[in-house]
Amino acid sequence: MSMETDSPPMDKSTPVLIIDNLSVRVVGAQAVQYVAENISFEVKSGETLCVVGESGSGKSVTALSVMGLLPKESLEASGGAILVEGENVLTAGQKRLRELRATRMAMVFQEPMTALNPVEPVGKQIDEVLRVHTPLSKTERRERVLAMLDSVHLPEVKRIYDAYPHQLSGGQRQRIVISMALILGPRLLIADEPTTALDVTTQKQILSLIRELREKQNTAVMFITHDFGVVAEIADRIVVMNRGRVVEVGRREDILSGPRQPYTRMLVSSVPSLIPRKRSAPAGEIVLDVAGLAKIFSEVRIFGRGRTVTAAEEVNLNIRRGEVVGVVGESGSGKSTVARCVVRLVNPTSGAIRIKGCDIAQAAGRGLRRLRRHIQIVFQDPYRSINPRRRVGDSIIEGLINFGTPRNQALGKARGLLRVVGLDPDVIQRYPHQFSGGERQRICIARALALDPDILVADEPVSSLDVSVQAQVLKLREEIRDRTGIAVLFITHDLRVAAQVCDTIVVMQRGRIVEAGPAEQVLTGPRQEYTRALINAAPGRYWDFQNFRPLPPS
Amino acid sequence: MPANGNPIPAEALREKPLETAPGRQPGIDSAASALAHFKRTLRRGPALAAVLLLAVVVGVAFCAPLLGTTDPIAINPALRLKLPSHEHWLGTDAYGRDVYSRVMYGSRISLIVGLGAALMGVAVGLLIGVIAGYIRLADAVLMRVMDGLMAIPGILLAIALVSLSGASLFTVLVAITIPEIPRVVRLVRGVILSVRSEPYVEAAISLGTRVPTLLLRHMVPNTVPPLVVQGTYIFASAILTEAILSFLGAGLPPENSSWGNIMAEGRMYFQLRPGLILYPGILLSLTVLSVNVLGDALRDALDPRLARRL
User: Which residues sit opposite A266 in a β-bridge?
Assistant: First the structure.
């Protein structure tokens, strides 16, 4: 953190952005319906204000209102004012808004690929901003774009200038989007979850880039995020939003160490921290033993040899009864491939996967079906993992029916399972669309538990959920493990989640296991460079959120 | 997409069902609102008119004997090419047969051909499409055969098939249906391919669901909306193809009074008695038009993306 955090230059700087009593309502709703109500806060120059909230809190709507980008047919600002350097955005015309957007305020979105035009070189796309808004000549513009690319720390700027978006990595693309936003030196930068789609190590770089540019250009930054780890890294002040209202505004230290509102308190304490929980070492029998697992995807071609991609290689791991083994890695590390091989959704190229001694990698037909009873999977996206056309009861009992349980008996069990996962047993009559994401994930867990499996594979089961829901689902999973002694293979990209739930952590990189060991050992005394980099990149690692206190840097 | 020799309407309709079908998020987010949207769409003017008109044609086909008709194939050489009169409301043709009766009875053939081709095409296409979509090994072979079929102009293929097997209602029906099958197969295969990687299908696999159940319960239901739409297009296109085949003399035997046959026989006397082509022609156009309009309306009604927007 910079020193500026502790003594912000408050007196000199006037607020760049003032949001005063803003309300946004749904157009055409019968009863007046607000998605944002009486929002007020301000952002000063050189300051980073983090707007934090769960999905549906109105944080993005507020940002879109500032940019004048609300979808006209569905939402409209119905009251209040948004002043950008004293000028009211809500009353500005379209032409004025366009000018303001480039020169005074700019926005960076979550997904850099969709924010860029895929059929134009990125340099040309940045150049266009200058061409429209400045009288510079072609060579001057090119120089300025190259200088900008250099200042966002892109390598070989001349090559990048002529590259197309798909030729760049996710982090590089986000740097391009940031340079496009900042090239005219706007006074206000709005970043809407700019690092959510990126890997942690890339996220760390982008966060420090935003911090650096803010200091250099003295820009006011309004940073929207759901991740308190990111907030702890970057914020000067924090606005907490919930259901379209501002819950609490305050300095970072104040909110993180002493939240006044119960909602903020709940939100902050739901954030998993990197400190591993103390647990006794699991000592049960080994229920899953993976040895020498490899998966190579190859393209089948009639002429010549197709490309091959090694998704996983020499993967060895075992899980004991009641143990939670976390497989951690960035995107493309092969962790999901391992999960899918273990459940035999894909066929491994070589290696053995022994479930209680039977090799599921070699099983086929009836033998494979019998083994499926013992291992179940929960997926990342709760919206797509339940058949939308069937009642949730039918989805839960599907496995039981497949293995010959009479329907009535199965439904009775489904009711019991729903109670276990914290839902009303009567919901078996309903359809999936009537549930929220967190509830659906509970239904998925109930469905996976219906067969009384020995092993549960959880593929990023909480990544698409809000932190408070995430905490509930993780707690539920913990209870289930205590009750049934089920072994869990937990796939995640988030070391903080792994720290909270796993007994053993396996770190994967490019299809190989680079480090494995007890959670405490891996997290506190990593032996490999890559593990250390992952831990260093985890946002908010110097903050103990559950106990509302900073941690001494280790 | 290769032309199958049909005139423009049939060609234009080809493109439409495909854009809604593959890659679309399967599943209806809100069953209730989708149903309301469905009813709303079908109650709009053009769709309503199309439904009414089709109802009339179906009514005529069923009640043809009760609508003041005489035997449509009774020849009367004494009354050749008469103008409309009290006995013969639309006049008589070159063999002295009552044109009004022939046109009324002709609707039966058209509807049988349309419905038969739609049902057969969808059924066979669904079966092949599911096999191609689910079994990797079969996919390459089946789809190359389908590509081959699509490369032959549909009318040409139908003429060849009819001349090989001899003309009867059934062979004509088969000949009309076969060129339609590849499109259905492509449609179904696309849906199956996109659905099989859905997490809920994978969850069902890991729950030990057997393949037939897996297909019927979790995958095939997603093909129903695009198939309903595609079915209506086959319906319209088959009616047209049958008329074209009959017109070219490669269709149903002349003793069947189909709209195409009536027009084919009226061709020589068009300048003398334009009604011989006009009356069946108008009915044919209106029927095909309303089936097309209905197909469009169904496509809009079954598309969840449109439902959400409204």
Answer: none
Q: Say if residue A1's pLDDT is above 60.
A: no
Instruction: Identify from B198, B207, B216, B308 which residue to disrupt to test chain A contact, counting A C-beta atoms within 10 A and taking the largest count.
Output: B207
Residues 6 or more apart whose CB falls under 8 angstroms from that of A114 comprise none
Inter-chain touch A403–B206, beta carbons under 8 Å: no
Write the CB contacts of A118 (distance below 8 Å, at least 6 apart in sequence): A164, A165, A166
Inter-chain touch A388–B217, beta carbons under 8 Å: no
Q: What is the mean pLDDT of residues A410-437?
A: 90
| Yes or no, beta carbons of B31 and A433 under 8 Å apart | yes
Whether the pLDDT of residue A281 is over 90: the answer is: no
Same domain, yes or no, for A445 and A463? no
Work out the pLDDT band at B195, boundaries 50, 70, 90. very high
- Domain of residue A229, residue span: 1-104+187-273+538-554
By percentage, how much of chain B surpasses pLDDT 90?
A: 36
What domain count does chain A have?
A: 4
Whether A376 has its CB under 8 Å from any CB of chain B: the answer is yes
DSSP label at residue B218: I
Q: How far is CA B222 from CA A340, B20, B215, in A?
A: 24, 12, 10
- Taking an 8 Å cut-off on Cβ atoms, the answer to whether B207 and A389 are in contact is no
Are residues A515 and A444 located together in one domain of the fold? no
Q: Do A513 and A545 have their domain in common?
A: no
Those residues of chain B whose CB sits closer than 8 Å to some CB in chain A are 26-31, 198-200, 202-210, 213, 217-218, 221
User: How large is the average pLDDT for residues B13-36?
Assistant: 42
Whether residue A119 sits in one domain with residue A76 = no
Residue ranges of domains in chain B, CATH in brackets:
111-254+285-309 (1.10.3720.10)
pLDDT at B306: 53
For residues A80 and A196, membership in a common domain is answered with yes
Same domain? For A81 and A4 the reply is yes
Whose CA is closest to B202, among B218, B221, B216?
A: B218
Kindly tell me if the per-residue pLDDT of A34 is higher than 80: yes
B82-111 residue pLDDT tens: 888 888 878 888 888 888 898 999 899 889
Q: What is the CATH number of the domain that holds A465?
A: 3.40.50.300
Q: What is the DSSP-derived secondary structure letter of residue A271?
A: S
* Residue A211 burial (C-beta neighbours within 10 Å; 0-12, 13-18, 19+): middle
* Predicted local confidence at residue B304, as pLDDT: 57
Write down the ipTM of this complex: 0.80
Helices (H) and strands (E) in chain A, counts: 20, 22
Residues A79 and A121 in one domain: no
**A55 and A41 co-located in one domain:** yes
- Cβ–Cβ of B200/A345 closer than 8 Å? no
